[in-house]
Amino acid sequence: MSEHSIKLSNRRKMELTGVSKVNTFDDEEIILETSMGYLNIVGQEMHISMLNLDEGRLMIEGSITGIEYKAQGSDLKTKGKSILNRLIK
């Protein structure tokens, strides 16, 4: 696995290295597995313009409003749900 890095230009273009898997993506949220843990990227009108998992490289274009790392064992599906919704599963 290659070294993990993020380059963000004008909150419109993001280049990443160290990406091992794209778990989910749509135009408002992209969830990746990287060598440093899960990475959740949020924004609007986002799309993946380049993906090369052999080299661990990814490029995203769109309006990027936030990025957040989660530990490798984290349950990303509970993100955004209230405590009551998580208890009532």
- Secondary-structure element order, N to C: EEEEEEH
Indicate how many domains the architecture comprises. 1
CATH fold title? Immunoglobulin-like
Morphology: globular
Tell me what the CATH architecture is. Answer: Sandwich
CATH C-level class? Mainly Beta
Computed structural class: mainly beta
Percent in strands: over 45%
End-to-end span in angstroms? Answer: 36 Å
Mean pLDDT figure: 86
- Uncertain stretches: none
Helix content: under 10%
Number of helices: 1
Please give the radius of gyration in angstroms: 14 Å
- Sequence of strands across the biggest β-sheet: 1-2-6-5-4-3
Largest sheet: 6 strands, antiparallel
The total count of strands amounts to: 6
Structure description:
The structure is a single chain. This protein is mainly beta and 89 residues long. The protein has a single domain, classed as Immunoglobulin-like. Helix content is 6%, strand content 60%. It has 1 helix and 6 strands. A 6-stranded antiparallel beta sheet has the order 1-2-6-5-4-3, with no helix packed on it. Strand 4 and strand 5 form a beta hairpin. The radius of gyration is 14 Å and the shape is globular. The termini are far apart.
